[in-house]
Amino acid sequence: MQVFPKFLLSAFAPAQFPKPEIPEIAFLGRSNVGKSSLLNALLGSKQAKVSSTPGRTRSINFFAIHDGPQKAAPKLLFADLPGYGYAKISKSISSEWPKFIEPYLTDRPQLALCLCLVDSNIPPQESDMQLIEFLANANRRLVVVATKADRLSGNGRAKAKAELCQGLNVDDILMVSSKTGAGLKDLWATIQAAAAEEMAE
After folding, report:
1. Where are the alpha helices (DSSP H) in the chain?
2. What is the distance between the alpha carbons of residues 14 and 135, in angstroms, rounded to a whole number?
3. CA 30 to CA 10: how far, in whole Å?
4. pLDDT-based confidence at residue 91 (cuts at 50, 70, 90)
5. What does the pLDDT look like over 5-39, one tens digit per residue?
6. What pLDDT digit, counting tens, does each position of 22-31 carry?
């Protein structure tokens, strides 16, 4: 799917969030899960900065998604949230969470879908389970997306998916690869369906 993304702004406080007018898709995950790489793969361009040092993103970065180069109004907003679970920055992120991350996840009216990114190559993590429980308690629609699936064989992917579903207590998981593009079409379909449902409400 071809889209025309544009970086909109970085927010460090609720007052800096863009006006809630169109559906928003939140990207959440551990600091080394490959969140920026997945964003760039979905958008078809290097919009999110991929750092060799996990945890560099400290703000919520918003990207406006347009259907075409001549379209004035975007159809979607992607929100790239700070990563968590990296030892060196976990305390600073934890201290910032109540200030602007939690209000975004609990109060944002146009938040159509939360994409919870997990690494398909490692067992379920406690921090991922806590995030999923937090979003469920906030009555947020969420989908678990397992990244780096290209590093697993066919049997390995099936086994990893089953273990993650059981460990995270979810019915299904989307397996994707930013490197090969596997699963991105299904992920886009999931995003579009959630956005359409949000617009219909």
Report:
1. 35-43, 90-96, 102-107, 126-137, 154-168, 184-200
2. 18
3. 19
4. low
5. 889 999 989 999 999 999 999 999 988 899 999 99
6. 999 999 998 8
Rounded-to-integer distance, Cα 15 and Cα 18, Å? 8
Task: Tell me which residue has tokens 């490959």.
Answer: 34
- pTM score over 0.85: yes
The tokens describing 41, both together, are 């793969």
What per-residue string of b and e applies to 130-143 under the rule 16 or more CB within 10 Å gives b?
ebbebbeeeebebb
Contact 175, 120 (CB under 8 A): yes
Identify the helix (H) or strand (E) that includes residue 77: strand 76-80
Q: Which of 114, 160, 158 is nearest to 136 (CA)?
A: 114
107/2: higher pLDDT: 107
Closest CA to 10 of 82, 68, 73: 82
- What structural domains and CATH numbers belong to the chain? 4-13+23-200 (3.40.50.300)
